[in-house]
Design brief:
Layout (H helix, E strand, L loop, with lengths): L4 E8 L4 E6 L2 E6 L13 E5 L2 E6 L1 H12 L3 H12 L4
Antiparallel strand pairs: 1-2, 1-4, 2-3, 4-5
């Protein structure tokens, strides 16, 4: 199963890459789909297959993370896949 998981942008690099923290896992994510200047450090985004798909507010991120935690193993598997990935 492939999920879009909320993550918080912790750093933005030149170009289209940002470091995003997803439940304690930090990964490089492509933010190019969101457009120049549309996100900044501290913003929350939905991450899917290495891309930030949309910007969301913190309340929506918290609600989505709570729902995903309720999926149990599917959520755990998705976090493991994220931890093993690297687009950098």
């Amino acid at each position: 199963m492939c999920l879009a998981i909320p993550g918080e942008i912790v750093d933005i690099s030149p170009g289209d890459l940002a470091t995003v923290d997803v439940a304690g896992v930090r990964r490089a994510v492509n933010i190019g789909l969101l457009g120049d200047g549309q996100v900044r450090t501290g913003d929350w985004v939905l991450v899917h297959v290495g891309f930030a798909m949309s910007r969301i507010d913190e309340a929506e991120a918290a609600a989505t993370l709570e729902l995903l935690r309720g999926l149990g193993q599917a959520y755990t598997d998705e976090l493991s896949a994220l931890a093993d990935s690297d687009i950098g």
